[in-house]
Specification:
This protein is of the alpha+beta class. It contains 11 helices and 12 strands. InterPro entries: Byr1-like_cat, Kinase-like_dom_sf, MAP_kinase_kinase, Prot_kinase_dom, Protein_kinase_ATP_BS, Ser/Thr_kinase_AS.
Length: 382
């Protein structure tokens, strides 16, 4: 399916190029406030670009199944916040289909506007069992609503925080699914995800694992992308230092995510904690420097954990660049193949790090592919 995006001409707006070489106008970011008379003009131009984009998506969608209108979507509960908007679980009442509805304010900052247009095209064009399905989108002034597949078990971030460390067999299946998804995005659409982390890896009761949230993905015009985006605590050393981004940077983020799932906590952690047993982190990081601040004993356990997590993540950027890469430890707890796979994801030199496609041939991934571990059965345990 070839998607032809509309060309919108405006002297005041830079353009975002889509995969077909067409340009979509997006209001520019000015360092000073624009004249009052231009605000509505900019907003209307963007509104028009969105409307034309949505119309083209529908015209080119031979498999369209849903006539999406706000009044037909019954809100069930909120799923979360992020990337410029909120996400709600809804029921499409005419069909009974449960969906995730992402609501983004049209008047969001220009960078978010660009991401919305990008995300619409990417989601519409992606047809892969390892990527959340796109049902459609519509304007509901002042919002744009993007409807996608709902994954009833939620994110792996939420799962491990609920049940603790995730079985290494499940983690191997996660690695396989993410690598398959990243390889599809790059090989078929020349897209790199740029924000791989447990909260962007979703799971459902059927045992399916899919990646989501392409709000910070970029379509590659050249072989590399220079935009500094993504979640800094999962960023590769080269990106933190401002070097060019390649598909291998997603591999680093995957490696960090796999350790986090297997240990049940973020791998860059402060060893001087008095509220949990951090023996799982032995060897994942060089010894903590002196001067750690203990939290007041009067604070609740949950508050202390949240504060500790924030402190750890602030420190992690420096650790990522200056300290040895974390490892899947303690040694001997996990299969040797798993340790070697994670080590290969977390090579600091991006030239030495393999691509997702190359890693699909790793023995641990081959093991995951052949494994008869029942993910649906595992999903029924929580």
């Amino acid at each position: 399916m070839t998607l032809k995006a509309p060309k919108v001409k405006t002297d005041a707006s830079p353009a975002v190029e889509n995969g077909d070489g067409n340009m979509l106008a997006v209001p520019s970011t000015a360092t000073s406030a624009p004249p009052t008379g231009n605000i509505n003009s900019h907003r209307n131009t963007y509104h028009s670009a969105l409307s034309d984009t949505l119309a083209n998506l529908e015209l080119n969608d031979e498999k369209k199944k849903y006539d999406l209108r706000n009044e037909d979507l019954k809100e069930l509960r909120e799923l979360g916040q992020g990337n410029g908007g909120s996400v709600k679980l809804v029921e499409h009442t005419p069909t009974g289909t449960i969906m995730a509805k992402k609501i983004v304010l049209i008047d969001a900052k220009p960078a978010v506007r660009k991401q919305i247009l990008r995300e619409l095209h990417i989601m519409h064009d992606c047809h892969c069992p390892y990527i959340v399905s796109f049902y459609g989108a519509f304007l509901s002034d002042p919002n744009i609503c993007i409807c996608m597949e709902a994954m009833d078990k939620g994110s792996l971030d939420g799962i491990y925080k609920k049940i603790g460390p995730i079985d290494i067999e499940v983690v191997s299946k996660v690695a396989l699914a993410v690598l398959e998804g990243l390889t599809y995005l790059y090989d078929v659409h020349r897209i790199i995800h740029r924000d791989i982390k447990p909260s962007n890896i979703l799971f459902n009761s059927e045992g399916q694992i899919k990646i989501c949230d392409f709000g910070v993905s970029g379509e590659l015009i050249n072989s590399i992308a220079d935009t500094f985006v993504g979640t800094s605590t999962y960023m590769s050393p080269e990106r933190i230092q401002g070097a060019q981004y390649t598909v291998k940077s997603d591999v680093w983020s995957l490696g960090i995510s796999l350790i986090e799932l297997a240990l049940g906590r973020f791998p860059f952690s402060d060893s001087s904690s008095d509220d949990s047993d951090l023996s799982d982190l032995e060897g994942t990081l060089s010894p903590a420097r002196p001067g750690s601040i203990a939290l007041p004993p009067s604070r609740s356990l949950e508050e202390r954990k949240r504060e500790k997590d924030k402190r750890n993540k602030r420190k992690s950027k420096g650790h990522i660049v200056n300290e040895p890469a974390p490892r899947l430890t303690p040694e001997g707890r996990f299969p040797k193949m798993a340790e070697e796979f994670v080590d290969s994801c977390l090579l600091k030199d991006p030239d030495a790090r393999q691509t997702p496609k190359q890693l699909l041939k790793h023995p641990w991934i081959d093991h995951a592919r052949k494994s008869d571990f029942n993910l649906a059965e595992w999903a029924s345990t929580f």
